[in-house]
Each structure stands twice: as C-alpha cells, then as structure tokens.
Amino acid sequence: MTFFLNTSSNVAVRKAAEELREWGRSRKSLGVALVYGPVSAEDRLYHAKCPVEQRSVTALAGALEELGVRWKVLDPCEPDFIMDLVEYDVVLSNLHGPYGEDGPLQGLLDYLRVPYCGSGVGASAVAADKILCKRVMLALGIPTPGWHVWTGGPTTWNGRPVMVKPPFGGSSVGMSLVRDPADLPSALADATGEEGAAVLVEEYVPGTPVTVGLLELPGGSVVVFPPLATEATGADFYDADTKLDVDSSGTVTVRAADLPPDVLDKITRDTRILWDGIGLRGSARIDFILAEDGEPYVLEVNSTPGMSRDSNFVVGAAMVGLTHTDVALAMLHEALARPPYDVPLPTPAFSSTTRAREAAVSP
Which residues does 132 contact at the CB level (< 8 Å), separation at least 6? Predict the structure, then answer.
C-alpha cells in the first residue's frame, strides 16, 4: 500500500527532499539519456511551434546541468538511438503520445535492462489510452463524465454539447468541443486522423479544470501536490493553442484551487485510488473538472506530466517546497531505486545490420 504525503505532511516532505538532495550529491558520475524527438503528433506540434525556452526538454536539460550529471538528448528518430541508449545509466523520457508515453518505449527499455523514469508498460498503456482509462475508472469507482466510443458510421446527438477526443495523445491535440450537431462529423474526422482509430465522445461538463500532481520520493512515499485550478479565458476550453501559447486568443490562469473540505477529500481520494489502481510510478498528473454543482469528475490520467518551468506539475511541486531540479532528481532516484526488470533474456548484441535492414524494408 502506498504511503501518501499531502500538504499537511510538511516535515515528512522536507525530510524526503533532504534525503533526495544528499543522494544527488553522490551521483555526479550518473549518465542520463534525455529522450526527446518529434515522434507523435503532439511532440511534432511542440517541436514545430513551441518556443525553445518554453519546452519541457529545455527545462529538464537545465535541471540535469544543475545536477552536474553526464547527459545527452537522444532522438528516437535517429538510426543510432537504441545503440546510444545502452551507453547511459538511466533514461528520462520527454516523449508524449504514441510510442513514448503508451508503453512501447518502456517495453524496449525493459528488454534492454536500462532503468527509466516513470511508469512501466502496463500503467503507461492504460493512462495513455483515454478509452481504456475510462473503463478502468469505472472499474475503480471513479466519477468521470458520461461517454461512448464512436468507431464509424452514423452518429447520434442527444442535444447536449460533447467533447470529441482522439484516444491517444495529449495537449488537447485533435480535441473539439461540439455544441452544434452540424459540427460533429468534422470533429469526429479530426479526432480519427489518418489511422481511423476509435474516438471518445464525452459529455461536456461545464466547470473549472483542476489538476493534481503526484511525485514519488525516497522511501517509496508519494507526495500529492495541492490541487491547481486552471482557467482558460478567450477560448472555448483549454485547447492545444492555448497550452502552446502560440497564435492563441486564449490565456491561462493557474492558481491554488480553493476547495471546500469535502471536495478536497474527494479529489484526494480519487487521486490516490488511481495511482494505486493503475500502478503508476515516479510521477503523474490527474486532471479533473469541477462541475458547477461542486462535484469533481476525473477527465484524464497523465503518466508523463509536462515539465516546462511553468507547467502545472512544476507549479504544484513548488507549493510543497520542491524545485524543478528536485523533481527531476526524484524521478531519477525512483528509476534507479526500483527493482530491475530482470528475466532470462540474452544481452542484446548490436551490429551494422540495423541500417541495412532499415534500407531493405523502406518503400
């Protein structure tokens, strides 16, 4: 059973932070592979549009530099990616969406026996798949807005606004708020994309978005950050353009959520249940919508929270006295303290055949 720390556990958080920093001082020779590249649609969008100084990878690079470790950005789109990975002690991934956040990268690293920050294959796959995660929420008794899955064919309209969401990816990429039935077919087409995947059609719940971060600290305790309220003004919802802060009329205000005790208890309870129920590790962020009647509903689970300097996750960490560098260090500590994934597999052998095979299967 996980031991959770919250805002009333200041002494315990400070003690864990001191232990963490002491551990970091003895790890100057650590080799860290910072994995980042334009693999998914979400990461390609950030790579193309987000200013360099606002990117998570820039902030993480700064934290690793401050820690004094040996580090390098490794791009999965490069042919030598796998051979480069095994030269490092631990992997810190900044990939989001398919391949980076949904289990395949984690499975590769398990096979290579390279420690990595964050959740394993199963938890990553559940959290990344919005439809599967909804089903797990229901099984765990977590309140979430009503929904159905669209897989093609005729569409129905119950007269109420809906959120149309691609099953994979974050930052609201491909997501639409539909208020008029005439707009539904185009929203479904945008969410389906070229892959023709199923689409999540979710009941739109007006209210205030609330997000809660969690971070694993030395000793296996998990600190639950204070809930943050995020309000987008000038936009219909917290869309991709607003999150990117590029060519958007929307602005975002982030503040500590002023919640009645009973609502705070519900959000804290649901956050803890999801951490244990899904099997999350290292760090995570749970997104809620606080409905106009005061009831909180879980929208999504993020196993790889954004780590830019002003991200919701980092703001939440600061509220319990943890710096951005502390957060990065905690993620590295968890990865290296975790029992290794060890099964009787051969040690992978690399040769020059990788490039030859790649050329042979290219169209």
Answer: 125, 126
User: What CA–CA distances, in Å, run from 79 to 45, 89, 113?
Assistant: 22, 20, 20
* Residue 171: exposure state from Cβ atoms within 10 A (0-12, 13-18, ≥19): buried
**Amino acid type, 277:** G
Tens of pLDDT, residue by residue over 319-339, are: 999 999 999 999 999 999 998
The token pair that represents 293 in the structure block: 């009647």
Q: Which of 99-108, 236-245, 309-318 has the lowest mean pLDDT?
A: 236-245
Q: How far apart are CA 358 and CA 81, in angstroms?
A: 13
Alpha-carbon distance of 337 to 116, in angstroms, equals 10
134 contacts 147 by C-beta, under 8 angstroms: yes
Per-residue confidence band for 363, with pLDDT thresholds at 50, 70 and 90: very low
Angstrom distance (rounded) from CA 19 to CA 2: 19
List the beta strands (DSSP E) in 133-261.
Answer: 147-150, 162-165, 176-178, 199-203, 207-216, 222-224, 228-233, 251-256
pLDDT in tens, 191-246: 886 666 789 999 999 999 999 999 999 988 999 999 999 887 655 555 455 445 54
